[in-house]
Write a structure and sequence with these properties.
Keywords: Coiled coil, Membrane, Transmembrane, Transmembrane helix. The N and C termini lie far apart (about 150 Å). About 65% of the residues lie in helices and about 15% in strands. The protein contains 7 helices and 5 strands; from the N terminus they run ααββββααβααα. The protein is rod-shaped, with a radius of gyration of 41 Å. It folds into 2 domains: about 5-125, Nonspecific Lipid-transfer Protein, Chain A (2-Layer Sandwich), CATH 3.30.1050; about 155-215. By secondary structure, the chain is of the alpha+beta class. Helix 1 (about 10-30) packs across helix 6 and helix 2 (about 30-40) packs antiparallel against helix 5. The chain has a 5-stranded mixed sheet. It has helices at about 10-30, 30-40, 85-95, 100-105, 110-125, 125-140, 150-215, and strands at about 45-50, 55-60, 65-70, 80-85, 105-110.
């Protein structure tokens, strides 16, 4: 019996699409980034051996994302985690986000890394991609409802702002009154000066006239 296989070129095309989708998911889903971070930190290599069709793919977690290839990365002689499963099993694990479905996948490797890979698979899914795209299109308008504590903090913040504004208004009002008083004092002084100047001018003119008559 012939095993069902994918041609090398077709496999590479599929891997490019899946890699691009993973990159987009990682950008849009912060929870998925959290799940991928410890794997990327250790530069974990996962070998995915699928049946129907028979395919072997290597996923390398790095700071650049999840890199997919049909062979081990340079410098590696074996993967950290090996997954043996039928294609439909992997698809079900990704779609359902269910721990029981994910546990059915045969995984071999160091227990901690196997657990991290399971967490990543459970967090992975098309639902996350769709939700992320909707949020991006809406510009992040859809926000979760604030908790009671957040509401209380906002209310207290508003109260403090109102108090600050009232203090500023009171200070400005006092300064305005001081300016009005200063202006009135200057106007009064100006009027007194004008009147005094006029009286002095009249007296001077009268004195000049009287002096002229006497002579």
């Amino acid at each position: 019996m012939k095993r069902s296989t994918l041609s090398h070129s077709l496999l590479n095309i599929i891997l490019v699409f899946i890699e691009s989708a993973l990159t987009l998911l990682l950008r849009l889903d912060p929870e998925l980034r959290k799940a991928a971070y410890p794997l990327a930190k250790q530069e974990t290599v996962v070998a995915l051996r699928l049946y129907l069709p028979h395919v072997e793919v290597f996923a390398t977690f790095s700071t650049k994302g999840v890199l997919l290839d049909d062979r081990l990365p340079i410098g590696r002689t074996e993967p950290d985690v090996i997954i043996n499963a039928y294609s439909i099993q992997v698809i079900n694990a990704i779609i359902t986000h269910d721990s029981e479905t994910t546990d059915k996948l045969q995984m071999r490797g160091e227990s901690v890394q196997v657990q991290l890979v399971k967490q990543f698979i459970m967090q992975l899914g098309l639902g996350s991609l769709i939700q992320g795209l909707i949020k991006k299109i809406k510009g992040g308008k859809s926000k979760s409802k604030p908790t009671e504590a957040e509401k209380a903090d906002k209310k207290e913040s508003y109260k403090l702002r109102i108090k600050e504004q009232q203090t500023q208004i009171t200070t400005l009002t006092i300064k305005n009154r001081e300016l009005e008083t200063t202006v009135k004092e200057l106007q009064s002084k100006q009027q007194t000066f004008i009147i005094t100047s006029i009286v002095a001018a009249i007296i001077a003119i009268a004195a000049i006239i009287a002096l002229f008559i006497m002579t």
